[in-house]
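thread: overnight batch results

M.L. [08:02]
morning all. the overnight job finished for the chain we discussed friday. pasting input first so we're all looking at the same thing
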Amino acid sequence: MGQNSVRGEGTRGRVPRARELGWDDDLYGAGEATGAGAGSAGGGSEETASAGTAASTRAERRRGGGGAGDAGADGRASHRRGGSRRRAKKPGKRKALRWVAITLAVLILGTAGAGYLYYEHLNGNIRSGDRAGGSSGVKKAAPNALGDTPLNILLIGSDSRADAKNVALGGGKNLRDNKPLADVQMLFHVSADRKNASVVSIPRDTVVPIPECKSEDGSETFPATTNQPINETLGRGGPGCTLTTWESLTGVYVDHWIMVDFAGVVAMADEVGGVPVCVKTGVSDHPTRLQPGGSGLKLPKGTHEVKGKQALQWLRTRHAFGSDQNRAKAQRMYMNGMIEKLQNQNAWTDTGRLMGLAETATKSLQVSQDLDTVKKLFDLSMQLKNVKLDRLTTANIPTAQWSQDKNKNVLVEQSAEKMFRMLRDDVAFDKNGDQAPAKPAAPAKPKATAEAPGTLAVTVVNGTGSDAEPAVEGRARAITEILQGKGFTQAESSKEGASRKDTVVTYPKADADQGKANAQSVAKSLGLPDSAVRTDAKAEGITLVIGSDWREGTVYKKPAAEAGDVPEDGTEILRGNDKDCMYIFPPYQWDGKS
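M.L. [08:03]
and the structure it wrote out:
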């Protein structure tokens, strides 16, 4: 949590830094004069061409003879196709449950008729890692009256070049030893009643506070930072650190993560024989005088089926689409098209094809440890079966250009917080709900009884400041006086400030039962909900951080959120079965002739 300047209460520092090469850079190693990674916008190296041809040949054999084949480590995108299986008879509703559902259905169906040995074989393919890389203090949402809780899954696209196939497809062979970047990040939220779903993505160069994380092997600790690009989280502690950052940023508990790489995208595009995408004009994403690099994508106007290297070019294109936000829209279009293609091919009922899909998915899939078997993935898929495709909404988190670096983004604070609040409160992004959600169940009684208010030391911190507006002067002192008036006579205001979106009361993790009871006592006295009470591994006592959601007033009033009231500034929203071809910016428009 970054510090914020509050007159006499603290300071805030900035440490801008970011690596630039990633999903949307030159496929063939832009800037390299020679070598296997170099090439032009219209073609690639022999190594790249060979990799794409080999993958296509294997996929053709599977489609023609029904064999399982070996698609290599290339199938992560297939993983996300799974939720569509149960809806194959509804051609009018073929949109996406995205990467998660794709993979889940592939795994479910792939093991159903394959027998125990094949089931174990697929289990052996799956790679897993720790769910979290640090401590965010965010707790899972309380169940509603029916005992159900929302489900949140973080989907990550890695730009790792550690594998030879990823180098062949993504270029940058000199980057093999570099730490990977999480250049694609989407949070898949399914409502507690499993009747609607939302997918929110964030541009890769958005600067955010990154919490302290440990490396995947636990040998290194990365200190917390402020204003670092969110895609760097993957190199600071693996996908678990990316998850912890999302929790800290949004206040939303994330149940699982699923990660794919370059090769997985290509393998699945080849497996289905190409994925339909659409452009309003011809596109040629090539280097220009002002903008070097480019994906090399070249397509005439209209709808086309992309596969192999061209599929990866589509997903990595940014310049021609104009922004990271528009690139995310193109990625969602691609995933929708892949699901639609599978349904049209009856892929779920062709045993030979199915085995090939399952093999490819499990070899290239990496998941959090709580999803490390086919059985666990099957159980997760059962949580998605009731979500209707016309109740799916996708959106980018609202961002704007950072004043300190035009190549990076920052959150549009108020709009982003509104979106995060909708996720935390499980409010649908659409207005199509046919009934009100079940009311939350009464909070569980703490295992300990709160101590007398006058015995509790409470530190009050002014966290009302942000990049958008300064902190409210004297806010910590004002709330401290209110607490003292309610009997918390040992409450004191801190001289240091801390920027935070939501108001929270934290307590030491080591003092779980008694600390929680005491913190709930503080929260209740101010009208704060139980969800505002969080553990903090570094806390030495009870701390109240007044967020930007409580800049005035003596009693906290939770901001109301209505279904469908998604902020539209700085974002791109797709609802239900919306279809729209991608707009191409003029420097990259192509007449289809030259």
